[in-house]
Amino acid sequence: MASGTQRAEELSDGIERARELARRGDLQSAIGILETLAERSADPAPAIFEIGNLTKAAGLYDQAEAAFRKVMERYPGSVEAATNLANVLSAKSQAATAIAILRNVQSVVRGNPIVDISLADALFADDRITEALAAYDALAGRYPDYAPVHANRGEALARLGRHAEAIAALDQAAAHDSANPNIMRNRAFSRLAQGDLRAGFADYEARLNPILPAAPVRVNLNAPRWDGTLPLDGPLLVAAEQGLGDEIRFAAALPHLIERAGDVIVECDPRLVELFADSLPGARVLAYDRRRDGQRPVFDYAHLPDPPAAWIEAGSLPHVLALPDGEPMARRGYMATNRPRAGLLRARLEADALDRPLLGFCWGSGAAERPRQRYYPPLQDWVPLLTGLDAAFVDLQYISSEADRAAFRSLCGIEIIGTDDLDKRNDLSTAAGLAFAMDAVVGVSSSVTAMAAAVGTPTVEVTPERTWVPLVDGRDAWLGPLVAAYPDAPGDWRQAMSRALGTLRQVLDPTA
């Protein structure tokens, strides 16, 4: 029979094995180990608690909530379990419940920095940013050497558009925790928003740190990561990362790379293969082999026809190549389109346009999670823009939008031309042709606006605040045809729309 010490060592070793498997992108095996430990242990709570930690980090919030509630059933007074449960509820857009739990914990346990910060974080998650910042300010006075306070304070300042102050707070956090990739990544966002591109892109490398829940895992890839040295003894692989809009945006740097490196393999979403192959002469374009492990993407390279000499992530090209260099990386766009197909689409739409310019319109996206919702204006906030232009608005949404079009018709009498018969989600060659057929495009930040700018169509992206995407002379640093319209005070959709309207009037009628 194993002694208590042996059982404790087995539990500790098992938890560490599970953590390592999760870091390598095998979350299910990690959970299997922990479930076995829980079944065999006299006290299953530590193993179940670790299941909560790993599933929370992977974005599997329902599983994480269930795990932490099980721990609390056994140990109702567990401050750690209650705090972690509250953090999960915040992530599930149940911040009000999280705040109630944390205030109850605070009434029992005074002066616990983790509880206090979690409460401020819950206020932040509830979009009570000014209240959260006040809480972080107070905590910074109480815990001046505690890095998470300064890090989270920096994030709140960034949300309020106070990027210089955010950088100072994040510098203070880094002084106490220099290895924390979240601090570096958030500082990258503020530095890039401030126009400090070289330092910002250097910090942006922190997004790849494997301890981050969304950092990619790459298997069957034995080549070294490229450090910019040329020439190479074989092809250079450009590895995909993040979502479709990011893939389209990051690819704007590829012509610069191909010019320098020559033999380049580009991996991408299968839907982009045809477009990238037509747009990037000289590159070999392959569909990626990707699966999801919670939030973490796992890329497998066993399918590569030739082993690369080196590889680099697409989002790291500006850092390695020192781009942009005085102007946007793709000043007029870079993506080729099927011109005859685009011409047919335009001819079809002009029949309903009544001699007005065609203005592509995208007011939402498929990303429905709460952190993204603040980037989508309420439908009524679009009315001044819709009624302020003499244009034919064309629906570029790749999600179901008939109900929204009816709502716009009711709100302001504007009839948005539908394109429901086109598969804009999966047939990206047609989506690109549709964007090319427009005289201009306006919309929220999404793959739709990135696509429009990539094909060279003048594009206005309406956002509630100054985003991290760097600008060069007011234009997207990757995609020159794209101009951002954002307010001075974050969340002021009226000012953002007014600026978008002014830009679009100039684009559609430069002589006015």
Question: Secondary structure elements and their pairing?
Answer:
Layout: H1 4-23, H2 27-40, H3 45-57, H4 61-74, H5 79-91, H6 95-108, H7 113-125, H8 129-142, H9 147-159, H10 163-176, H11 181-194, H12 197-204, E1 217-219, E2 236-239, H13 244-250, H14 254-261, E3 264-268, H15 273-279, E4 283-287, E5 290-293, E6 296-300, E7 310-313, H16 317-321, H17 339-353, E8 358-362, H18 370-373, H19 383-387, E9 392-395, H20 402-412, H21 428-436, E10 440-443, H22 447-454, E11 459-462, E12 471-472, E13 475-476, E14 482-485, H23 493-508
Parallel strand pairs: 1-6, 2-3, 2-7, 3-4, 8-9, 8-10, 10-11, 11-14
Antiparallel strand pairs: 5-6, 12-13
Helix pairs in contact: 1-2, 1-3, 2-3, 3-4, 4-5, 5-6, 5-7, 6-7, 7-8, 8-9, 9-10, 9-11, 10-11, 11-12, 13-22, 17-21, 21-22
Keywords: Repeat, TPR repeat
TPR repeats: 45-78
Protein name: Tetratricopeptide repeat-containing protein
DSSP strand content: 5-15%
Rg computed from alpha carbons, rounded to a whole number of angstroms: 25 Å
Span from first to last CA? 88 Å
Name of the CATH architecture of the largest domain: Alpha Horseshoe
Keywords: Repeat, TPR repeat
Protein name: Tetratricopeptide repeat-containing protein
Organism: Thalassobaculum litoreum DSM 18839
TPR repeats: 45-78
Q: How would you portray this structure in words?
A:
The protein is α/β, with parallel strands linked by helices and 512 residues long. It has three domains: 4-208, Serine Threonine Protein Phosphatase 5, Tetratricopeptide repeat (Alpha Horseshoe); 218-321, no CATH class; 339-508, Glycogen Phosphorylase B (Rossmann fold, 3-Layer(aba) Sandwich), CATH 3.40.50. It is built from 23 helices and 14 strands. It has helices at residues 4-23, 27-40, 45-57, 61-74, 79-91, 95-108, 113-125, 129-142, 147-159, 163-176, 181-194, 197-204, 244-250, 254-261, 273-279, 317-321, 339-353, 370-373, 383-387, 402-412, 428-436, 447-454, 493-508, and strands at residues 217-219, 236-239, 264-268, 283-287, 290-293, 296-300, 310-313, 358-362, 392-395, 440-443, 459-462, 471-472, 475-476, 482-485. The strands form four sheets. It has a five-stranded parallel sheet, sandwiched between helices. The protein has a four-stranded parallel sheet with strand order 4-3-2-7, with helices on one face. The chain has a three-stranded mixed sheet with strand order 1-6-5, with no helix packed on it. Strand 12 and strand 13 form a beta hairpin. Helix 1 runs antiparallel to helix 2, helix 6 (95-108) packs antiparallel against helix 7 (113-125) and helix 10 (163-176) runs antiparallel to helix 11. The radius of gyration is 25 Å and the shape is globular.
